[in-house]
Amino acid sequence: MDITHKPQRVAPPPAGAAPAADTPAPVAPPAAAASARLHHSWLDDAHALIAGALFVALGLTMFGHAGLLTGGVAGVAFLLNYGTGTSLPLGFFLLNLPFFWLAWHRLGPAFTVKSLTAVTLVSVFTALAPRVVRFELLNPWVAAVLGGLLIGFGLLALLRHQASVGGVNILAQWLQHSRGWRAGHVQMGVDLVVVLAALAIVPPERLLQSVIGAVAIGAFLALNHRPGRYLGV
C-alpha cells in the first residue's frame, strides 16, 4: 500500500471571484498615472489667457483709479506713472521685456510665448479700460481688497495654464518649479518690498491700502496655487 504523500492541486478561483484578502491590489505604473492628467487644448489656453488678462487689467485699473499701487513690475510702472506721468500700460510692457530672457532659458518657449501674449493683452486691456469702465465712486479700501482679488484670480488662471504676466511672476514660477517655493509667498514678499519703497511718493494712507492689496494678491495665490493640487497641463 502506497502511503507516500502526494501534493494536492489547488483549483484556480472561478472567474469573477474576489481576490484573497492578502493579495496586493495592482498598482498603475507612473506612466499610466501621468497619462490620466488633463491636458489643456489651445482653446482652453486662449480662453484662460484672455480671461486672466481681463481680470488683471480690471484690478490694475481699480488700483490706478484709487491712487494705489501693487508690487513687482506693475508696481514700478505705477511709480513711474505717478512720478513722471509715464503711461502705465506702456511702462508695464517695456519693464517686463527683460524677464522673458529668464523665461525662455529656464521655463521654456511655450511658457515664454504664453506669458508674452498675456503681458501684451494686459497692456492693451489696461489702456482700453478707462474708455469702457468708469468708477464714479470707488472707496480705496474696497479697491485694495477687490482689485487685489481680481488680480490674484487673473494670475491664478494664467499660472494654471503655464503663463504669467511677466516680471516677478516669472521669477516666482521658476522658483516654485526649481526649489518648491510657493509662488504666492514669493509674490507677496517682493510686492511688499516694492510697496514699502514707494514711501516717498504715495501718501501713508494709500500706502497702507496698497499693502492690503498686495496681501490680497499674494494670499489668494498662496492658498490656491500649490504644487500637485491642479493636474491640468
UniProtKB/TrEMBL annotation:
Give the organism, scientific name. Answer: Ideonella livida
* PANTHER family named in the record: UPF0750 MEMBRANE PROTEIN YITT, UPF0750 MEMBRANE PROTEIN YITT-RELATED
UniProt cross-references to Pfam families, sorted A to Z = YitT_membrane
Gene Ontology cellular component annotations, sorted alphabetically: plasma membrane
Entry keyword annotation includes Transferase:
no
InterPro entries recorded: UPF0750_membrane, YitT
The membrane topology noted for this protein in its Swiss-Prot or TrEMBL record is: Multi-pass membrane protein
User: What's this protein's name?
Assistant: YitT family protein
Keyword Signal part of the UniProt annotation: no
Predominant localisation class: membrane
Q: Which domain of life is it from?
A: Bacteria
Please list every transmembrane segment annotated in the UniProt record, as residue ranges.
47-80, 86-104, 111-129, 141-159, 180-201, 207-223
Where are stretches of biased composition, namely Low complexity?
17-28
Keyword list (alphabetical) reads: Cell membrane, Membrane, Transmembrane, Transmembrane helix
Annotated region Disordered: the residues are 1-28
